Amino acid sequence: MSTTLKPKHVGRNISRLRELRGIKQEALAIAIGVSQQTISNIENSENVDHDKLELIAKELGITVEAIKNFSEDAVFNYFNSFSDNSINQGPIGSHNICNFNPLDKLLEAYEENKKLYERLLEAEKKNK
């Protein structure tokens, strides 16, 4: 049994990262000043010229190292590591727990409005 690692296929990594970013081959080609066919050839190549790799990385908004070390498994593991804590997820973030009763706050606001209305009526009576 062999324990040698298979070399990374940089072109395949570029293709997958481009797809994840929602960028078409043609758009990437225009951005780096080559043809769409050149991008296709790059994505089919196991190794890519360092200068082209830097241009592609810049357009994808990532580093050259991210392209070289990209792993589908790592992406899936990253997203699968989030457990569903939706019960504890509030609009502000996780573990958003109220320290007050919202109904009490509503009643306080109602009472305050009532007092303001009464003061407004008194002010109207004095002005007549």
Automatic annotation (TrEMBL):
Top-level taxon of origin: Bacteria
Give the protein name, as stated in the record.
XRE family transcriptional regulator
- Database matches in InterPro entries: Cro/C1-type_HTH, Lambda_DNA-bd_dom_sf
Q: Which GO terms describe its molecular function?
A: DNA binding
> A Pfam family this protein belongs to?
HTH_3
What are the HTH cro/C1-type domain coordinates in residue numbering? 14-67
- Keywords annotated in UniProt: DNA-binding
